[in-house]
Specification:
Layout lengths: L5 H17 L11 H10 L5 H23 L1
Length: 72
């Protein structure tokens, strides 16, 4: 069961069609697979928690280094 909003998939398909229409004929696709584009839009949730954890850890480590060198 997909907990997705149908509007996300439809908007993504519309954007893909606009981009495809703007391309020249040598790279333009003759037919876009709407089901594939819709599934891609549903999976692209933008979960960046692991990246935030890494950046936060590096920033905290740098703060500790600055703090330790300042006290000596």
């Amino acid at each position: 069961m997909c907990v997705c909003w149908q509007g996300d998939g439809d908007a993504f398909i519309e954007i893909a069609e606009q981009i495809n229409a703007a391309w020249t004929s040598d790279v333009k696709s003759t037919e876009l697979n709407a089901d594939l584009l819709r599934q891609f839009a549903y999976q692209a949730t933008g979960n960046i928690c692991p990246m935030q954890a890494v950046i936060g850890g590096i920033a905290a480590q740098e703060v500790m280094k600055v703090r330790d060198t300042r006290d000596t």
